[in-house]
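Morning, I've got a small favour to ask if you have a moment. It would help a lot if you went through both lines with me. I owe you a coffee for this, so here goes:
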Amino acid sequence: MTPSAPLRLALVAAAIGAVWGVALPWLGRCPMIVRHVTAMESRDVNPAAMYYTELDRLPLRPSWIEDRVVLWP
C-alpha cells in the first residue's frame, strides 16, 4: 500500500527540513569544515559565495590527487 500524496509531500518536506535544519548545521561545526572556512576567510574568499573567478586564491591540489585523478583527454 502506498502513502497518499499529502503524506508523501509531508515526508519529503520533513526530510528536507531535517537535512537543512539539523544535518547541515551539525556538519558546519565539524573541525574539518571549520578549518576550511577559516582558511578561505583568511584568503578573503567568502566560502558561502565562491565563484570561479576566486579559484586562483585557493590552494593548489596536492600531488597525490593529481596522481589519482584522471582528467578528460
In short: The chain has a mean pLDDT of 82. The helical segments are 5-28, 31-42, 63-68.
